[in-house]
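Good morning C.,

I know you're traveling, so I'll keep this short. The sequence:
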Amino acid sequence: MNNQSSHSPDITPAQTYENVSESAADLALDHDQSPVQSGSEPAKVGGGFIAAYMFAYFGLNLVMLMPALFSLAYKVQVIDPEGKDTSLGLVIGLGSILGLVFGPVAGVLSDATRLRWGRRRPWIIGGLLISALGAFVLALAPNIPLMILGWAICQFAVATISAGFNPILAEQVPSSQRGKVGSLGGVSAAFAGVGASLIGSFLTGNIFLLFLLPPAVFALGAIVLVLILKDRPAAADTATPSVTAVFKGFWFNPVRYADFAMVFLGKFLLQFGFTFFSTYQLYFLLERLGFTPEQAAQSLAAAGGISLLALMGFAVLGGFLSDKLRRRKPFIWLAAGLIAAGLVTTASATSLLVFIVGGTLLAAGTGAFNSVDLAMATDLLPEKDKAGKYMSIYYLSSGIPGVVAPIIAPLIIAIGGGGNYAALFVAGAILAIGTGITTWRIRGVR
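The tokens, ready to paste straight into the viewer:
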């Protein structure tokens, strides 16, 4: 439910920007700017490096997820209780545009940074400081426009941090350890997702701590990580693509490459529907079940632990079976069905137990989708020698809904006089079914 890791289909509004920024590194590769300047493999990393990486990754995900899953919704309903649905959508949607646009540019600029301190450290620390500024603005904001500004600063910060953080795995960790370190990072991100609502529920009495704790936690991990990071400035002859060239790199012909267009559209629809749920799940519990914000957040955290087990189990099992059976599409159909069923179940929930069942189905579907979506997208790359470009495009299939879905959601919630979260979740289920249809139209994989 609210426990999604960075390896999920990016189903929370904030998480999407890590993927957009991550795609910028891939885009830089497409411009012959390899993050690893030396052709040799990096040396094996020890337990200290892995622990620092995991803790920093936990903090970064807390920065992204705690506001998106709890803090923003909590403060919006305090400032504007009558118009909270529309106001939350505007804060998350409009506030996220800056991060979405800046993410690709930041990744390219990071690759070309020539400061003596390296090309990754300045972006991580600079982003941390910007994140603290954004959190401070959010904590002080007395109205919705200033909350939009604060969230925009926070998303700009996430794009900045990600430009320095995301290449670390490729640059600092040898290929023999990347699977292990990457999976441990995913675990730490998942725990951040579970903890986001729980931690928030205990901080509602201190609005400053509610918003400033996540960047403070990230600061502890980031400082240790940058101190042990073996970072170098970019080579003097490193060429930086223009901003125009960066964004031109996101265009492809959807008619000529129909299979890739369908896999893009499928993830777009799934992400769109799930963003409906992740953005408004707190308000659903407040309105439908009559919980206080604290009770709702604690319930989401407890349910998140159960959902995490379902997500990880289906991800591992789906990946194993997909490779063994050499099939991709059946697992996408399974994922779409589970997610649609989960959304319909939560839409009809009149008790916490039913809500948890729905969330568990959602998580299981997410795990099934995670197990094959990147593999299927890779299988369907139109031009194998331009993998960076097309994976950058693919990541946008989760970034764009994070901006658009929260803005559209209040229009659906308003059906029948307002507060119609059930209609919103059913709409998400219909979009998930659409993913099954787009997958059926794919011809390049089985």
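Safe travels,
E.
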